[in-house]
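Data's thin. Show one?
=====
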Amino acid sequence: MSFAKTYFDNKELAQLKKTITPNWDDTNTQNHINLLGIPKSAKVVLEIGCGIGRLLKEIQALPQVDTCYGVDASGNMIDQAADYCDSNDIHCSLCDGNGDFDLPPEPVDFAFAWLVFQHIDHTKVVHTYCKNMVSTLRPGGTIKCQLLRHNERPGNPLWVWHDPHELASVMYACDCVKTSVENLSQRWVLVTGVKDEQ
């Protein structure tokens, strides 16, 4: 059973706003969005591990963004997302936690996973999410995935390291012609791919 399916069960909205990552106030949310560097051309956005939609709610308010889609393996999170986001332009749905999810009904300009993959035990699952994310992208669309920079806590199920260069290779194999690994901090990296426009 996935971490998300058990950890977030039976928690109220106030608790889910905090979860395992502290200080999810408005300022911190904006900092996370700034680090993502969402393209100015991104009208349709997909988030993997959207939770209650903390990031999607702010992203949907960006002037270029029309519609946001999110998936999460926690039914409790998805139930609360409808109330928290309260928008007809944000659509959150449940996924199986094993890398598969219902694809959005339209091509996506920007797909991302933020503070999510470090909580998934199996690298194969992370790679499956990545492949499926790329499959949602329109030609020229961008995928960005945050990972831990180092294997800082071996054996700790809350902090699992996945090789960022391997993930970049997965993106490349799925028709992302431009891939990069960027150090965001001492702890985080951001793996980026841009889908071939042909």
